[in-house]
Amino acid sequence: MLRVRPYRSSDAAAIQTWIRDEREHALWCANLIDYPPSVDALDRKRMALDAEGYGTMFTALNAADIPVGFFAVMRLETRINNAHLGFIIVDPAMRGKGIGRRMVQLAAGYCFHLLGADSITLKVYDQNEAARKCYKAAGFVDVAHNDKSLMFGKEKWGTWDMIITRKRSKRFLSL
Ligand SMILES: CC(C)(COP(=O)(O)OP(=O)(O)OC[C@H]1O[C@@H](n2cnc3c(N)ncnc32)[C@H](O)[C@@H]1OP(=O)(O)O)[C@@H](O)C(=O)NCCC(=O)NCCS
Fold first, then answer.
1. Are 18 and 91 in contact (CB under 8 A)?
2. Ligand 1 — pocket residues by CB below 6 A?
3. Which CATH number fits domain 3-172: 3.10.150.10, 3.40.630.30, 3.40.50.1000, 3.40.710.10?
4. How many angstroms separate the alpha carbon of residue 100 from the centre of ligand 1?
5. Cβ atoms < 10 Å from Cβ of 109
6. Hey, is 143 helix, strand or coil?
7. Counts for the chain of helices (H) and strands (E), in that order
8. Distance separating alpha carbons of residues 158 and 125, to the nearest angstrom
9. CA 106, CA 59: separation in Å to the nearest integer?
10. For 8-64, how does the pLDDT look when each residue is reduced to its tens digit (9 = 90+)?
11. In the chain, is it the N or the C terminus that has fewer CB atoms within a 10 Å radius of its CB?
């Protein structure tokens, strides 16, 4: 059982323990959230997303109401009816159990069924194999690659843009 509700500041205490170092932080959020992701850093990001209009942060809870995951709808581009997801993370102690895939499916359900989006995109670094596999398992496909999008120390990270359309989602989202 996985439930999703809007993020609350009290969730930050758990979320900030899920990021164990600066590299993991950069892989997670492309440094679009200040490091470490404190309650203030997450509140600043929530205010910035609020200003986008449709930007919203969500927390996923297990059956005991304990936070086990987090993600954000970053924006809805109404001109092309595309929603963009970001900041997807699962508690390290809970990874590899299908929570990430289920959470992304629930996020997609919100975008398709409540926001009325026709497609959903996200970005993921080449180096993030777990995330790439998770998004593929949820039905996302590659749409474009950017060879150099972030320098982390001496590492050059490329980015995949991935997408799922409303039509394709019908095969993947058992809501
Ligand atoms: C990416 C992330 C959310 C995946 O969450 P998760 O709960 O572990 O993923 P799931 O258990 O649902 O796995 C989904 C699929 O990915 C695969 N997968 C997950 N972790 C993997 C790993 N480390 N290596 C290889 N495959 C992996 C699973 O085998 C599964 O594939 P399957 O459905 O074909 O069996 C999690 O690893 C995470 O929080 N990473 C740190 C934050 C981050 O980098 N977020 C991504 C930002 S773009």
1. yes
2. 27-28, 88-90, 95-101, 124, 128-131, 133-134, 137
3. 3.40.630.30
4. 6
5. 15
6. strand
7. 6, 7
8. 6
9. 11
10. 999 999 999 999 999 999 999 999 999 999 999 999 999 999 998 999 999 999 999
11. N
- Whether pTM exceeds 0.85: yes
Q: Which amino acid is at 25?
A: H
Give phi and psi for 71, each to the nearest 5: -160, 170
Give whole-number Cα distances, 55 to 2, 6, 65, 87, in Å.
Answer: 22, 11, 24, 12
Q: Residue 22 is which amino acid?
A: E
Q: Which distant-in-sequence residues (6+ apart) come within 8 Å of 47 by Cβ?
A: none
Spacing, Cα 122 to ligand 1 middle (Å): 15
Structure tokens at 98: 């299908």
Q: Which residue has the tokens 């932080």?
A: 25
List the residue whose alpha carbon is closest to atom 43 of ligand 1: 28
